[in-house]
Amino acid sequence: MFEDFFDVVKKRFNGGSEEEYKPPMFKCPRCQQLSPLSRYEELHRVCPKCNYHGRLSAQERISITLDKDSFKEFDADMKSGNPIDFPEYMEKQEQLRESTGLNDAVVTGTATIKGSPVVVGIMDSRYMMGSMGSVVGEKIARAFEYATENNMAVVMFTASGGARMQEGIVSLMQMAKTSGAVKLHSDKGGLYITVLTDPTTGGVTASFASLGDIIIAEPKVLIGFAGRRVIEGTIKQRLPEDFQLAEFMHEKGFVDMIVERRKMRSVLSHLLKLHGYDKKEV
Amino acid sequence: MDEKKTAWERLQLVHTKGRPTVSDYIPLIFTDFYELHGDRHYGDDMAILGGIGRLDGRPVTIIGQVKGRDLNENKECNFAMPHPEGYRKALRLAKQAEKFHRPVICFIDTPGAFCGVAAEERGIGEAIAKNLAEFMTLRTPIISIVLGEGGSGGALALGVCDDLAILENAQYSVLSPRGFASILWKDASREQEASEIMRITAEDMVTLGVAEAVIEEPLGGAHNDLDKISENIKEYLSQKIPEKCEKDIDVLLKERYTKFRKIGEFLD
Question: ipTM, 2 decimals?
């Protein structure tokens, strides 16, 4: 009886904190199921229930994909201007720079993947939804130009909501700029591998993301041109759940292969070797 | 030129019923026009028209987005919103022009590529991207003219060119002002405000380095005098096409790339 009493006291004493202690959970945007956040992070942000491949920061992507300490960044300090004088655009970016540690939505540079040298570009959706404005366009064009000049392969990890509205027509022109740079690289015989990650949409889908010699997608990521809600608004009906997911685009013939994150490094390395890039001197 | 109009007023003019479309212009600018159909993969998209004809006797390839002049025509051409096969038809004809050393003239007039299930399934993103890349190195001169609406990637897919001209009241934008307001402010009714802020007018395009020339419209807008506006367009083409054709193609391609390469504002 005394023991029971002690249990009650113990429970009361600890009760509050026991209830408070809930492991932080991750709710998957695809399957809507909950998993412990620690498990999701342990898997490098892959849903343990449905295999949805979540969003990574550019830094996380670098650390799991590229050879340790091999990444040398291009244009790290490049910052956007305000080509159409859009109100509060500069202020918004200043805040984002502080909160993300990024200067814009893409990081580019050279690195090696299991010893094969490569030019890489990694988009980060935390910065204005990975949208493409002057800086993204310029950095990507320069990365391709560097690769063209040095006969290197390019691997681009795309993640973008599309063109950056705050730069108006100037953002639209970045589609032509990047696509042109890809074309010149291609005409010189360079290999370009695109890795479509969550989400790849709009103007990025309609430019360099769709131009890879080999197009890889991570499982269950969103890939499309028009937004789902825009299309639903046009056709006045609900779209199926799998519409515009990687698997759907694969079935329709726009994605060569779906590759899990844990295998990405080795697949990329094999593809680079198959094209002879491990032997090329840089 | 009537310079007092706001972007919003010009936008109303672009949507005025009776504003001439590519189908109105072709017979007045070109001779011996033959329309060619289909992308050779899937179908024939009536939102994009293409064919061959002559400009001042010189064979040229003509590609343009088609707006309907009434509801029936608009249904047929899907309100000038192309599907992937439209862009693939455009690319096929551009490649054909390259083969036969004909310059390409593109007329842009679209609210944007079609946002629908079929367009996504058939790779609208890929179709646009392909055109951007291929037009950039197409070994023949390309002149594009924005006739009315130049909306988004769907417009740009006919807009990679050596020189871009834009009609005085036409607009060119990353997204329609309505779409812009609804995305950025979650309020489509702020369309007018968006149109003023977005820098979408012909004058803006020249300032921003997107367009090289503005083609003057008759007083009150293109619909007021079809002969006059056709004459103005023809005059522009008759000057530009020979000029571009005389240039060494490698120089032309370098200039084409540089034109787009330098658009953007950043601090290094």
Answer: 0.97
